[in-house]
Amino acid sequence: MPTSVPRVSGAGRGDSAEARAYLLLKAHLHLLTEDHNARRAYEGCGDPSLITACLGGVRSGQDTERIRGHPAIEFLRGPARPGRPLLVSDGAYLPHENVGHDLASYLIAGPRTAAAHIVVDAVRCARELSGPYADDATALVAHLTGGGGEPGSPCRCGARGRAALLVSEGLHVLLKL
Which of 12, 82, 148, 174 could form an SS bridge with 77, CB 3.0 to 4.6 Å? Predict the structure, then answer.
């Protein structure tokens, strides 16, 4: 199965499949991506684990739009501005969503700590909710500074803002910090 990765840059946004991108700005978490899964295609009734479009998929954009009701890849442009981006796989956001956790509350901590807690808590919640299986949980958190919000002005990931990436598969959690 093709891997799905949301791409976020100062120039715009493109996304496809089962990962989400969020941006924390002024204590409010904004969802930057749309899900490409059966839950979206069937208006909240489908399986969120059933992917309806992905990068490298066999359907054309027009076929995906006709069959699933959404484009294969979506794109949005906006100004770069300071904030805290969060990229998460379905194994990281769905368990939190299912138990009503607020992902913004995790982002108060530094990027490494935030990513670690998001992943560890997601795996714990998934195991409690659905037995001995937890989907892969991936979280990347960064702290962007500078930019001033003007189009074309760069945001920087400063010394304090190194990204943290944690991946867990099944019941095994790898915390490589």
Answer: 12
